[in-house]
Amino acid sequence: MNRGTARARKPAAERRRQIIGVTTRLIAERGFWGLSMQDVADECGLTVPGLLHHVGSKDGLLLAVLDHRDAADADALVTELGLVAGLGPGAALRPDAGLGFGAGLGPGAGLGSGAALRPDAEPGAGAEPGAGAEPGAGALPAGVDLRRLCAALVRRNAGQPEIVRLFAVLEAESLAPGHPAHSYFAARQEHTLAVFTALAAGVSDRPGSLARQVMALMDGLQIQWLRDPGGTDLVTEWEIVAATLFG
User: Fold this and answer.
1) How far apart are the first and last CA of the chain?
2) Contact (CB, 8 A) for 65 and 181
3) pTM score > 0.70 for this model?
4) Residue 149 binned pLDDT confidence (cut-offs 50, 70, 90)
5) CA 185 to CA 128: how far, in whole Å?
6) Distance between CA atoms of residues 211 and 145, nearest Å
7) Which one of 36, 96, 127, 172 is CB 3.0 to 4.6 Å from 101, fit for a cystine?
8) Bridge partner list, 103
């Protein structure tokens, strides 16, 4: 957009959705360090000061994207699993996977995607990603076992490759301690491992080991799928893995 052109005003909620959508795509393409606030502002028809009015800072923008994906994926998984509203935050399901897994619990080691399990407490706006998150598993909803949860996460992630890619890129970048999402992804991994371990206790005498294997395999399959989406059927490949893991 020409910067001299009058900029259309949007309701705050609509503008925020637009900003998050544009930022999600740009981070998936370039990573956080390659993200330019000017590019986000230009695509949204804003000035950089106008963009900062909505998100506070570049770190705040990243946090807004992660929180939005967590909430969206949590809602989708509750529906997918046939759960009822009223789950406490410690039991809420989130993306990742990514890579939370792998991209999810997401995109999610790291879940790389938008489909991961939410930490017990979400950081408030302006806080460092992951700050204040409790990694405990919380009260797990009845009727959810590890195999069923993983299948739901994989189906969710298979339908949102851009989100899985977003979490995969951020998961790798955030290994550096100075990355603004370093604490977020560390808390995400710890929480997901706790939840998976609790669920694995019913099917393995070494639940922690099984939980780590599940996370690693989900992340690995999702990376292969992102590199070769035409040659990799994520859902089918996971079903084959699950048959081996769970019998």
Assistant:
1) 56
2) no
3) yes
4) very high
5) 11
6) 12
7) 96
8) 98
